[in-house]
Every structure is written in structure tokens, then in C-alpha cells.
Prior knowledge:
90 residues; CopG family transcriptional regulator; mainly alpha
Amino acid sequence: MSDVKTITMEISPEEWERLQAEADRLAVPIDTLAQRMLSNGIAQIQPPIDKEKALRALDGLRELAKSLPPTDAVELVRAGREELEQRGIF
């Protein structure tokens, strides 16, 4: 036998009516629909960010950027604009 847990919760009459209407529409028991919705909602929760790992990744990007040649942002935009003008897009 599986180790099933039971939860009791309160919902508003409006939420109950919406849940019941959807259960009726799908032709499933209301408790089955509620369990599916809870499972789907939990599955969509993003895991917490590992701050140490993120900081290490940023440090790695900083090191990588040191080996790249400097970029003139104004010249980059100018060149991009010229290319778009040549294509007749801008």
C-alpha cells in the first residue's frame, strides 16, 4: 500500500463552483481534478537558484570577456544600421 497523505483545505464558494464546473466538463471526480491541478502546479515550480553556482558562472564570463577584444558600441550600432539600410529594411 502506498504512503498517501491527506490534506484538508478551504476554498471560496466561487473557487468550488469553478472547480466543480471544470470537473463536470472533464467528466472526472472533483477530488481527482484537484489532485491533478496540484500535481501540475507543483511540477511548474522552479527550483531555487544556486547562488554560489550563479556567481561562479558570472566569474567565468568575466574571465572569458577579458580575452575578447574591446568593442566600440557606437561603431557596432553604426555598422548594424548601415547594413539594415543596405537591405532596405531601415
